[in-house]
Amino acid sequence: MHLFDTHTHLDAPQFDEDREQVIARAVEGGVSKMINIGFNRETIPTTMKLAESYDFIYAAVGWHPQDAINMKDGDLDWIASLCSHKKVVAIGEIGLDYYWDTSPKDVQHEVFRKQIGLARELKMPICIHDRDAHEDVVRILREEKANEIGGVMHSFSGSWETAKMCLDLGFHLSFGGPVTFKNARVPKEVLAQTPLDRLLIETDSPYLTPHPFRGKRNESAHVKLVAEAAAEIKGIKWEELAEITYANALERFGIV
Length: 256
Description:
The chain is α/β, with parallel strands linked by helices and 256 residues long. It has helices at 19-28, 43-53, 73-82, 105-122, 134-143, 160-168, 185-193, 223-234, 238-252, and strands at residues 3-8, 31-38, 57-61, 88-97, 126-131, 151-153, 171-175, 199-201. Helix 8 crosses helix 9 (238-252).
């Protein structure tokens, strides 16, 4: 049995005291692979260090919409140069965030478009951050021909209508802790309708902690709780869902 945490932030300061133990717990809990996300000037180097230190940890590198205002001309070239590294499997997390008012929308749009263009040029999948910006995210993905590369809608929170548009663009939908929450009606309904071959699971640790640990720090070992909740929604055994999503992630990110 294999589990794949497709989105985690193990380099976050929340893990500074016990990072090695957190990673060990994940491995002991059946997590065979993880993708750590480097999303700005600070976290890209620490993500690369993690990926180079552990065989089973891979990297995605990109520029987060919250940090779009801080992106310099040379940063896109930096991301491009890192994409040739054997452990870098995606550009991300990139996208739009209208919840946190840290970067103007026009700046977010420009940085998002540039990174989609880079991903198309390099033929890399993209990992999408979409918070309260579903309509603009889908529109920009269409306009920038993101269907040519596809990718992952990380911690998907949109409606089934939005989900269908993302699936039509060739994207996988990834679900995390919220599908374990009793009141999370929409994510559960969307997951129930998502084809098994387009489904991924994640933790987004140290954030979005699943039940029954909600309110505490999340960690990659908890991806099993996501697998169990998703399997219950799908009406299959959690071990089967774990293997399906593991295989999906290997294929989506080109990991052999």
